[in-house]
Specification:
Strand content of chain B: 5-15%
Structural class of chain B: mainly alpha
Radius of gyration of chain B: 24 Å
Distance between the termini of chain B: 63 Å
Number of domains of chain A: 1
Largest sheet of chain A: 2 strands, antiparallel
Helix content of chain A: over 70%
Strand content of chain A: under 5%
Number of strands of chain B: 8
Structural class of chain A: mainly alpha
Oligomer: heterodimer
Low-confidence stretches of chain A: none
Order of helices and strands of chain A: HHHHHHEEHHHHHHEEHH
Order of helices and strands of chain B: HHHHEEHHHHEEEHEHHHEEHH
Chain lengths: 339, 465
């Protein structure tokens, strides 16, 4: 029975891997959920076809990162998975139902008659909206902490629901709308692109506002987080993160009002990255805030070792052919049905 | 919901979502492999009929695959939302297997499905073919891991129980290649192939009957009948081996399948009957003497264990297992009969124009799905009251979630699945009604050589002239 526990810090590696997988999910599915959020506001049906085509080859792969996040959590930190899923029962189920509606809309929309296409346009929109909102709610609920006794969740069915988690839900909807609209700026031109630019500028304003609210409220709510961010010398080490966020917001804003096509999307990704980093630092070292650390939740070293072997070999491969697909379908999306 | 406890609701919900889900992989595993064969035939022969059949079925594949993806994502979270006790206790062993499924299969399928569907004008024909093969391989790899995980829950080995009550792996190869895995894996893959074959046969028969798309229909129907002739009988053998393996490791399940209550030598085969869990007897039974012993022990007077060997609370719900088993085997027999009929008709050169056989095949279109569901009912209900056989009871695996959220979400799943997958089925029917399109450029555009009235000598014409 092989195990690397004496060679490397397995729980730490897996904590990092899960964090990266979730980040990749948020970035990748974020832009295609964002396209769904913006869908009904598009200037024309031809625009909508185009928006759909710009993400159709990718959405399935993007969503697989969610399965990797969930499956990876189950494999590497089964205790965290076993506590968080019952705690988040309702938002998780609602998110899944949302993902069902938007997932099938890709195929159904192109097969539907003109009359029934509207049904799938709305299924796509409301499915994306629900999934995005619930993911934001989940983040908001988790950062406030979960009630645990022994190895079980002991809170109520609606512990996750409060004004704060609703706020983070709305925040993530705008965040994804920003990713989606800057993606469209990159992948379309003409009328659709001009419209996407406007959407992006609008979403960016709200993202900035919500980032400010979260940045102030998190330390205000939790003394440990306050201590972490506002003590000396931590504040000097951590100050670059909010500073970078601010610069990225300004840069994106600037780019959106010029002819830049690619950089707004890159900057939005950067903005998500800095926000995620800030959140991650605040949650360290918990797998279930503020009850179970990632070391307590870790699976047996043999289990983490086995999957690590596969991950080291396969993850670069996965990233490689994912990149190949993005390269293959590069350039502006067309509004015509592709197959 | 009054009267029904959270555990029962969680079980109904999981049974509902997992049963719905298995329908899609059961179809796409076979379809992906078949599409690969079609594309290979097309590249090899240059016969555009293969390409046109491919283009029609790849659309159906896309719709089905999409539904399989979204219903599968649900499952990956339900292990936690509904069965957190199971996730906590078994996570060390099962987690890595599911992790490997995502890493080796899901990404592969998802990425290359994009190339398969949207890459026609962006990649070379060879690269496109490679994508189809990769997707087909992905479906098989995915089945490998998930069936390994499921089989481990049936026949667990390669672990120890820790002082904290959690399960710890001790031998990965023993975990992955647990005793029932090889049998369950080949049995499931074969049933997926047969499911697809009978769907394709049914649609092909429909076109032949309506005398539409006859060239394409011959390809569909002919290839499907090859499967029925050769694979359906193989499945009988595989199923028998799987059953013997179950007898060795889960004898209570086999006793429920057979509807046998008393341990006896020379046990009869109960063809039909009504197993009564309270009375501990199978009522109104129609029996063939000694056949059960012959099948299970290969001896006329071999001893077969009856359900009374186990205490009442250790027995699975017998009637479910008993009847599901009969439905599965019955459909298997119909499939074998189809193969034999096809063989006879083929030898008489009447395979493609026998109307009653076309009705027969149309009627059997959904047969594979029913058999797959029935088979899974046998193995999953037959494992009760355990979720990990002999180790963890289903009742102890449940999440600390109260009944009402489970009841409401169950209702939501029923409504949403009914609507979404109903619509999906409708669109698939529409694609079938539309049939394969022609890839042949019509006369007049792009300077095509021959006007449509001219046919080449030796070209296969329509069947009914």
């Amino acid at each position: 029975m092989f195990s690397f526990e004496h060679i490397v810090d397995l729980p730490l590696i897996w904590y990092a891997l899960i964090i990266v997988a979730v980040l990749l999910y948020i970035l990748l599915d974020g832009f295609d959920l964002g396209v769904g959020i913006l869908f009904p506001f598009a200037p024309s049906d031809a625009s909508r076809d185009r928006m759909m085509n710009s993400i159709a080859p990718f959405w399935d792969g993007n969503e697989t990162w969610l399965v990797l996040g969930g499956g990876g959590l189950f494999a590497a930190f089964p205790l965290a998975y076993a506590i968080l899923m019952p705690a988040l029962y309702i938002p998780v189920i609602l998110m899944l139902l949302g993902l069902i509606f938007r997932g099938v809309a890709f195929e159904f929309r192109f097969k539907a008659s003109d009359r029934t296409r509207t049904v799938w346009d709305y299924a796509f929109h409301y499915g994306s909206l629900t999934a995005a909102f619930m993911q934001g709610v989940i983040i908001g609920a988790v950062v406030q902490g979960v009630l645990v006794e022994g190895r079980r969740f002991v809170g109520g069915a609606f512990d996750w629901l409060n004004a704060y988690s609703v706020m983070t839900g709305v925040a993530l909807v705008f965040g994804y709308a920003l990713l989606g609209s800057t993606w469209l700026v990159m992948k379309t031109d003409d009328v659709t692109q001009a419209w996407a630019r406007k959407c992006a500028a609008y979403a960016l304003g709200y993202v900035g506002l919500f980032l400010a609210i979260v940045s102030i409220s998190m330390p205000a709510m939790n003394p440990d987080i306050r201590e972490l961010w506002w003590s000396i010398p931590n504040i000097f080490y951590l100050l670059p993160i909010p500073t970078a966020s601010l610069l990225l917001i300004l840069l994106t804003w600037n780019d959106l009002h010029r002819a830049r096509e690619v950089r707004p999307f890159i900057c939005s990704i950067g903005l998500f990255f800095t926000a995620y980093l800030g959140l991650g630092i605040s949650m360290w070292p918990y797998a279930v805030p503020f009850e179970v650390t990632f070391r307590q939740a870790a699976a047996a070293p043999a289990s983490q070792s086995l999957l690590l072997v596969g991950t080291v070999i396969l993850l670069p491969l996965v990233l490689g052919y994912t990149a190949y697909c993005y390269y293959l379908f590069r350039g502006k999306a067309s509004h015509e049905s592709a197959y | 919901m009054p009267g029904i406890d959270a555990l029962t609701l969680a079980r109904i919900q999981f049974a509902f979502t997992v049963s719905f889900h298995i329908l899609f992989p059961a179809f796409t595993i076979g379809l992906a492999s078949w599409l690969a064969v079609l594309e290979w035939r097309w590249l090899k022969t240059g016969d555009r009929v293969y390409a046109e059949v491919y283009r029609m079925w790849v659309k159906i594949f896309a719709v089905t695959f999409g539904m399989g993806v979204v219903s599968g994502v649900v499952l990956s979270f339900q292990f936690g939302t509904n069965w957190s006790g199971f996730a906590d206790q078994g996570g060390n062993v099962l987690g890595p297997l599911l992790g490997y499924e995502v890493l080796t299969a899901f990404f592969l399928e998802a990425s290359f499905l994009g190339v398969m569907l949207f890459g026609w004008n962006r990649v070379s024909p060879k690269m496109h073919f490679a994508s189809t093969v990769i997707v087909a391989a992905g479906t098989l790899i995915s089945a490998f891991w998930i069936l390994s995980a499921n089989s481990w829950m049936q026949t667990p080995q390669g672990f120890r129980v820790g002082a904290d009550g959690l399960l710890y792996p001790t031998d990965w190869l023993a975990v992955i290649f647990n005793p029932s895995f090889p049998y369950r894996f080949v049995h499931m893959i074969t049933s997926a192939y047969l499911t697809t074959a009978f769907v394709v046969a049914g649609i092909g028969a429909y076109y032949l009957w309506r005398r539409r798309h006859v060239q394409h229909a011959r390809v569909m129907f002919g290839m499907a009948m090859i499967m029925a002739v050769f694979v359906a009988p193989v499945q009988l053998v595989l199923g028998d081996l799987h059953g013997l393996n179950t007898l060795e490791h889960q004898p209570a399940k086999v006793a429920a399948m057979e509807g046998l209550w008393n341990t006896q030598k020379g046990a009869p085969l109960v063809l039909f009957g009504w197993p009564d869990q309270q009375e501990e007897a199978t009522r109104y039974s129609l029996e063939i003497p000694k056949l059960s012993s012959l099948i299970l022990t290969h001896e006329l007077d071999g001893e077969v264990k009856g359900l009374k060997e186990w205490p009442k609370e250790e027995r699975p719900p017998v009637a479910w297992v008993f009847w599901s088993f009969r439905i599965m085997v019955g459909i298997g027999m119909l499939m074998i009969a189809t193969g034999l009929l096809a063989l006879v008709l083929h030898l008489r050169k009447r395979l493609f124009d026998t109307t009653w056989f076309q009705y027969w095949c149309m009627a059997l279109t959904p047969a594979g799905f029913v058999a797959v569901l029935a088979g899974w009912f046998v193995t999953e209900i037959g494992r009760q009251p355990y979720v990990v056989y002999g180790l963890l009871k289903t009742a102890d695996a449940a999440s600390p979630v109260s009944a009402s959220p489970i009841a409401i979400s169950l209702l939501a799943f029923v409504v949403v699945y009914g609507f979404v997958f109903g619509a999906g089925s409708y669109y698939i029917l529409k694609l079938i009604a539309k049939g394969p399109g022609s890839l042949e450029p019509t006369y007049g555009d792009h300077g095509i050589a021959s006007p449509p009235i001219v046919t080449k000598i030796g070209e296969r014409g329509p069947q009914h002239v």
